Amino acid sequence: MEDENMGEGEEKFEYEEVVKATENFNPKRMIGKGSHGIVYKGLLPRTVAVKKASSLDSLHHDDNSNKLQNEIRVLSILRQSPHVLNLLGTSHDSFGNKLMVMELLPNGSLHDWLHGSRKPPPSWTKRVEIAMQIARAVEFLHEGKPMVIHRDIKSTNILFDSHMNAKLADFGLAVMVGSVVESPPSQPAGTIGYIDPSYTSSAKLSPKNDIFSLGVVLLEIISGRKAIDVSKTPASIVEWAVPLIEREVVEEICDGRVAVPAYMAGGVGEIVRLGGRCVSEKEEDRPCAREVVMRITDVAERVRYPLWRSVVMRSIAGMVGFTRNKRSKLFLNTSSHNTSSVITVKQVLSLWD
Ligand SMILES: Nc1ncnc2c1ncn2[C@@H]1O[C@H](COP(=O)(O)OP(=O)(O)OP(=O)(O)O)[C@@H](O)[C@H]1O
Ligand SMILES: [Mg+2]
């Protein structure tokens, strides 16, 4: 089978170059630490992020370096996507321990933004945009050949680039399905609060596991509440939000720190209900990633062009006038008659909703 997603091949960096770039993995250059990797900022000569398996003891080190190798294997078969972390290259030390060189995502994680106290919480337009970007990342993985199931979608693995675009990172647990370089069969894995409760054996691996986690992230984005918050009852965001969605009181789910603008209330409600469907107990009741993208894109477009758009469009139409030709095209009659801008009836009507 041909792998359509196949990347163009990452660069191989000399280990000495990486050591120099990170000042010998100087703790001052550490920008993140997860359960299996430590991430450093480096200059190669562009600014990059370098991930190294953490090594508490030899047993954990082997497990952590397997995860890192798996991450490199999966990321190196993916084409570039604006919504997925970009792998730049690899390196290894004299013992063969791999290092991953990736684009630097310098603006923290979604978890920091929603739950940290540093910045004001994201606006509602930004929340819709983040939801759309992450849904697109998941669609990219699920619709690719081979299909990639991420298995660890959560707000700490969603990072922001220099333009504050959200990207899905941390492919340590990801599996490729239907590939010549198929990942070995894996035991269920993920993070408490995000893992699909029906993913109980390796045979139950499915893209719908990611959809469940995506649903948790959608509810987290809208509510500003953590996936698991032991100071609240119920502690699980799913157990808290689903009954509220069923009682049709979605406004109680919305993050009270930022008022929802009236023109966005409908769209935000749609995303909450979509999140509720993603965390359905039965897999078959969950939408696929393509549908999630379609629905959020629809909300995002309405948010981008709210009601005033139709007023402006009507005024422009009134000023310049439209004439309809036989082929059902509308000619926009501008004052300059040298060129006529042609737009289809559908395009105009779509601006009119
Ligand atoms: N490309 C990057 N640019 C900037 N910071 C990054 C980058 N990649 C990772 N980080 C930071 O390092 C942290 C750990 O990275 P990552 O999530 O990949 O490691 P992990 O060990 O797999 O974590 P987990 O605990 O989720 O298994 C991230 O939460 C983030 O703060
Ligand atoms: Mg992580």
From TrEMBL:
It catalyses: L-threonyl-[protein] + ATP = O-phospho-L-threonyl-[protein] + ADP + H(+); L-seryl-[protein] + ATP = O-phospho-L-seryl-[protein] + ADP + H(+). The keyword ATP-binding applies. Its EC number is 2.7.11.1. Keywords: ATP-binding, Kinase, Nucleotide-binding, Serine/threonine-protein kinase, Transferase. Residues 25-308 form the Protein kinase domain. InterPro entries: Kinase-like_dom_sf, Prot_kinase_dom, Protein_kinase_ATP_BS, Ser/Thr_kinase_AS. It comes from the Eukaryota. SMART domains: S_TKc. ATP binds at residue 52. Pfam families: Pkinase (PF00069). Signal peptide: none annotated. GO terms for molecular function: ATP binding; protein serine/threonine kinase activity. Belongs to the protein kinase superfamily. This is non-specific serine/threonine protein kinase. It comes from Arachis duranensis (Wild peanut). The lineage of its organism: Eukaryota, Viridiplantae, Streptophyta, Embryophyta, Tracheophyta. The gene is LOC107482604.
